[in-house]
């Protein structure tokens, strides 16, 4: 973000506090409304975070009032996520080819071009099956949609429309599931097997010599340690050989 963003965008709601962007251009309508997906408002809407009144002010360009407003951008992004999830769960819309025509009907938009742009930005194929309950699928898709709806953020002096913390909070409020990376754990069998491999490579003479270091002094304690060492060695070697035999079966 450019340093001047704080004087023109509220850092809490992430809605512009001025009519003009740092570049002197009017902010996009959806960005001003806290509605980056450009959802129409209807009286039946019960979305969380709707502003009061929920219908946008009269647009400066004289066009009709049609889009909803939210109190913070995180709510507007959440609407995008929840709309996609509803489309998947209720109507089975899980591919870009299915989603974009519903989002941007052909009668009002160049839907084919819209799909191409979204595919390019996300890296998803047009007919790739997506799980819109998953963070890894839904967030890139909505980011691409927002970029298309609002335009290039660089045109307004920004590097991106919203920071990562806004996306993460909106995803959490929408109930998206994020796959946690698999924890790196130490495999006890692997450690034991590795030890056995090392010990199995020691010759019988070397093993005997190693044990003699403990046995030859003649003390009871030394003899006990030696016996335990032999038992441990035999156990590890036998375990390793059984594991190799099972893997080969």
Strand content: under 5%
- N-to-C series of helices and strands: HEEHHHHHHHH
Stretches where pLDDT is under 50 for at least 5 consecutive residues are 186-208, 210-215
Round the Cα radius of gyration to an integer and report it. Answer: 32 Å
Distance between the termini: 60 Å
Q: Quaternary status of these chains? A: single chain
Structural class: mainly alpha
Total number of beta strands: 2
Strand order of the largest sheet: 1-2
Overall pLDDT score: 81
Question: What general outline do the C-alpha atoms trace?
Answer: elongated
What is the count of helical runs?
Answer: 9
Share of helical residues: 40-55%
Largest sheet features: 2 strands, antiparallel
Structural notes for this entry:
By secondary structure, the protein is mainly alpha-helical. The protein is built from 9 helices and 2 strands; from the N terminus they run αββαααααααα. The protein has helices at residues 29-33, 73-91, 96-103, 111-122, 135-150, 164-174, 188-200, 204-215, 220-248, and strands spanning 50-55, 68-70. The protein has a two-stranded antiparallel ribbon. Helix 3 (96-103) crosses helix 4 (111-122) and helix 4 crosses helix 5 (135-150). The longest helix is centred in the last third of the chain and has 29 residues, at 220-248.
